[in-house]
Amino acid sequence: MSYYSKLFFKRTKKALLISTILASFIPFLVNSAKALEFQWNANDGYKRLRWYQRTAEKNYRNKIFLFFTPKDRKTGLLSLNIKFPNKYKSIKQKNITFCKAKMGAYTSRSKCIEEISSDIVLNKETQRLEIYPISPVPSDEDTYAVVLKINNPQKSGLYQFHSFGTSSGPIPVSSYIGSWTITIDP
Fold first, then answer.
1. 128-133: strand order across its sheet
2. Which of 125, 136, 39, 35 minimizes the C-alpha distance to 83?
3. Global pTM?
4. Is the pLDDT of residue 30 over 50?
5. pLDDT band at 145 (very low <50, low <70, confident <90, very high)
6. Nearest in space to 67 (alpha carbons), one of 78, 51, 53, 54
7. 40-94 pLDDT per residue, tens
């Protein structure tokens, strides 16, 4: 082998090595925008909750899971109160369920395991959704979810859902649980 062919192979090998290392840092996720969450008035009182949606396209039919994980619930809950954005006009009471859920991962999907019987009150004037389970939601190791089957808004952007809960202690106290920031793509 000549000097120039050895030099060519060395440079090619270095270029391949460097390009594979750099390519490993590029996220290849389809919807990688969920990795970054933006908060307008960031303060210590804000708590981000987990969520999952089937599609992020505007004007599409969507199924959104709003999760309550065990670390989100310090005590049992007598009731849940969710404030939704005014752009979600297609929310209907018959398309809302409260269930014990399994959070999806890379190889599995998010789904309801068992539906929790509850009274659901939807007030579109105040943009509030109130859920009253028949028996209080325990503070155990199970994950619970509010599942919304709705149409996405016509405008893309970030939409926040805020949740409040009434504790099931000796003195029921309503407190802030956290917020979900849903992303709708353009």
1. 118-123, 128-133, 77-83, 157-167, 174-184
2. 125
3. 0.73
4. no
5. very high
6. 51
7. 555 667 788 888 888 888 888 889 999 989 888 888 889 999 998 888 878 888 9
**What's the distance, Cα to Cα, between the start and end of the chain in Å?**
56
C-alpha to C-alpha distance for 166 and 175, rounded to whole angstroms: 6
Tokens 């009274």 correspond to: 119
Position 98, amino acid: F
Select from 129, 105, 126 the least CA-distant residue to 118: 129
Tell me how far apart the alpha carbons of residues 40 and 99 are, in angstroms, rounded to a whole number.
Answer: 31
Question: How far is residue 43 from each of residues 40, 47, 93, 175, 176, measured CA to CA in Å?
Answer: 9, 9, 32, 17, 14
Query: How many CB atoms are closer than 10 A to CB 124?
Result: 14
- Contact by Cβ (8 Å): 183, 34: yes
Per-residue pLDDT band for 37 (boundaries 50, 70, 90) equals low
For the chain, domains (ranges, CATH) are 33-184 (2.60.40.1290)
CA separation for the pair 56, 32 (Å, rounded): 12
User: What Cα–Cα distance (Å) separates residue 159 from each residue in 40, 53, 88, 151, 166?
Assistant: 11, 13, 9, 13, 24
